[in-house]
Structures are given as C-alpha cells and as structure tokens.
Design brief:
CATH architecture of the largest domain: 3-Layer(aba) Sandwich
Number of domains: 3
Strand order of the largest sheet: 6-5-9-7-8
Shape: globular
CATH superfamily of the largest domain: NADH-ubiquinone oxidoreductase 51kDa subunit
Number of helices: 15
Largest sheet: 5 strands, mixed
Helix content: 40-55%
Distance between the termini: 34 Å
C-alpha cells in the first residue's frame, strides 16, 4: 500500500511560521544552497532539474540585479495541486521565495499566476501585506540587511507559458514563445538578468529542508527521487483529490488509495506524459520511473482510448505557439490521422508507423518541452491500446 505522508511534512498543520526564514537569514547564501543541493530536491513542475544546482548557477552568475520567479501558471490538464498550495499554504511559498532570494542574491520576487486564478489575487496580496507588516518582506528583513519583495503578475492564459523562457517573455510584455537556449535563465533571464524559475511546490519544500535538514528530507522517496510529491488525481476513481505521496510509489498502490475500480489506463504527468495499461501498474512514479509531473488521470474500461487521444491532440494543436515547424506541423498531422480514425475511415498501419517516426523527430527537434512531448499521447496510446485505434 502506498505510504501517505503525515501532514507534518509539506502540508503541516503545526507549521511554525517564520522559523525557516529566521534560520535561513542566519545562514550564509552558500550554506543554504549547500543544504538544498544535499537534499537532492528536484523541480516539482515536471522537468525535474536539481533545484540546488539551479540556485548555485544563478548565485554565481554576474549581475547585481537578479530575480526569483514562482511559476504558478498551473495549466497542465488534470493538475490542481498548486491551487491548493496557493490557497492553504501561502506561507510556505513566500518563505521559500524569500529564502531563495537570500541564497542567490536577489531582492526581486515575482509570482506568475495563472489567469484563471485571478480570484485568488485579493487573498494573496493581503498575505504579502501581512509579511511586509511583520518585516518579512521589504527593506532590511528582520534587521539582517537583506531586502526582498514579491509582486504578482497574471498570465494571459497560454499553456506554453508554463515553459520557463516563454513565461519570461510573457513577463516582459512579449508574446509567450520559448527562447533559444543557451543562454539559460540563470544567466540571462527576466530583463536579461540572472533568474531562477521554480514551481509553487518546489518553493514549498524549502522551509522543511531548512528547519529539518536535508537528511530528514531524504528519508522519504527514493535515492534518486528524494522527498514527497503532490499528485492531482482525477478521472474514474471514487476518491479524487490531491495526495502527498513518497516519490517511488507504485501506480497500483496509488490506484488502491484513490479507490479506482476496473482501471484500463492511467495518464501520468499530464497531457504530454505517459499513458500506461495494466501490465505497467506495478512500476514506480519517480524521476527514474514514470514522470512525476503531478497529474494523474484514471480511465476505466468503459473508455475508448481513441477518444482520449483525440482530446489530447486537439489540445496540443490549440496550444502550440506555432513558432517551430516540428510542433506546429507535427501535431496537425497526428490530429488529422486521429480524426480519420474517429470517422471510421481507413488508416493504414504503414501510415501510423510513419507518424511514430514523426513523433520521434518532434521529440528531438521541437524548440521546447511542449513540442517535444506533444506527440506522447499518440506514441503511448498507439503502443499500449492499439486495439482502440
């Protein structure tokens, strides 16, 4: 059975407000970065880049002005974990951002908030004002000679702005399109200044790592995927919701936990993740296993996976920014084939195999993560549920 973490971890009701911040400001920036590195915390937005390494690169980058950006653009289909954190665990997020600012030498924090979460603005701004009144934000925080402030910006509703460089372009008032890399944001990000972009959940783990230590954090999860992870579970199950589980939890244990019956398929990691069948339910969700992006969608045996594929490909065609040919044209070609299948028209096996080759080209040549994973629904459903096609 999956191990459900005690709420004293990430979602702790006895969270000691300000404890992590006070401790962090008594440490040198290098000590904070060393602790985050030692914890082996990886980005919880899905990409899994080592958080400590990202902070270290930004701290060492040249420049007097640096930025800490929280990616709260939760646009991945089936994901709603960050909404819970923004609503119920704002303190952890803000403390995590302030600590990150101290670690990399930044005085500037930005929460890039999903446009559909506009209704949260009043409460989030009120919480920021509370922090200013406590002298936890603003000038000379806790009289430690450290300045840091946080502002909130709304996105314009584009899925591609979940990609960090497209997010930065959007913040600068430009069309949300991915940048060429290098240079990376830690070198030249927002306004060409060194910038770190981390997910809401990533920042929320920082207070625990600072107060309890990296070794305590590493007691959970696996050796390569340390800590816990929030999963947004939806679809054909009796207990949908947000669950905090050890990384490395097996799919079958998660299905038991959410009381999923007669399960046919599980979509792991969002629209661009993997679609697995029963033969793979005994495998783990971790950075060395199935991608722990945070979205789990359950499909029971009443579902036709061709309809699911149609839905995902329509989504990717709609959300492609159109900047690079592999994504712009590749998603359209795959959707055209699925539309033919949906209408009952004949599509040869040879043609479908050609689309698999196209998907492989997209994975290595598209400009950003959206284009590189946009063909995943086709690849996995064709591989695991060919009879539905």
């Amino acid at each position: 059975m999956a191990q459900v973490m005690e709420r004293k971890r990430l979602l702790s009701p006895d969270y000691k407000l300000g404890e992590a911040l006070e401790k962090a400001l008594s440490l040198s920036p290098s000590k904070i970065i060393e602790a985050v590195k030692d914890s082996n915390l990886k980005g919880r937005g899905g990409a899994g880049f080592p958080t400590g390494l990202k902070w270290d690169l930004a701290a060492k980058a040249e420049g007097t002005t640096k930025y800490v950006i929280c990616n709260a653009d939760e646009g991945e289909p089936g994901t709603f974990k960050d909404r819970v954190l923004l609503l119920e665990h704002t303190d952890k997020l803000l403390e995590g951002m302030i600590i990150a600012g101290h670690a990399i030498g930044s005085a500037n924090g930005i929460i890039y908030l999903r446009a559909e979460y506009r209704w949260m603005l009043k409460d989030l701004k009120a919480k920021i004002e509370q922090y200013k009144n406590k002298n936890w934000l603003g000038k000379n925080i806790l009289k430690k000679g450290f300045d840091f402030d946080v502002e909130i910006r709304l996105n314009a509703g584009a899925y591609v702005c979940g990609e960090e460089t497209a997010l930065i372009e959007s913040l600068e008032g430009k069309r949300g399109e991915p940048r060429n890399k290098p240079p990376y944001p830690v070198e030249k990000g927002y306004l060409q200044c060194p910038t770190i972009v981390n997910n809401v959940e990533t920042f929320c783990y920082i207070p625990f790592i600072i107060t309890e230590g990296p070794e305590e954090f590493k007691k959970y999860g696996t050796e390569r995927s340390t800590g816990t992870k929030l999963f947004s579970v939806s679809g054909d199950c009796n207990n949908p919701g947000v669950y905090e589980l050890d990384l490395g939890t097996k799919v079958k244990d998660l299905l038991e936990l959410v009381d999923a019956k007669n399960t046919k398929a599980v979509q792991i990691g969002g629209a661009g993740g993997v679609t697995i069948g029963e033969k793979d339910f005994d495998k783990p969700i971790a950075f060395e296993g199935y991608p722990p992006g945070g979205s789990i969608i359950v499909f029971d045996k009443s579902r036709n996976m061709r309809h699911v594929l149609m839905n995902f490909m329509e989504f990717f065609v709609e959300e492609s920014c159109g900047q690079c040919t592999p994504c712009r044209e590749g998603t359209m070609r795959i959707l055209e084939a699925v539309e033919k299948l949906e209408k009952g028209e004949h599509v040869s096996e040879e043609y479908l195999e050609k689309l698999v080759e196209l998907a492989e080209v997209m994975a290595v040549s598209a400009k950003c993560g959206l284009g590189q994973t946009a063909a995943n629904p086709f690849i996995y459903i064709y591989k695991n549920f060919k009879e539905d096609l």
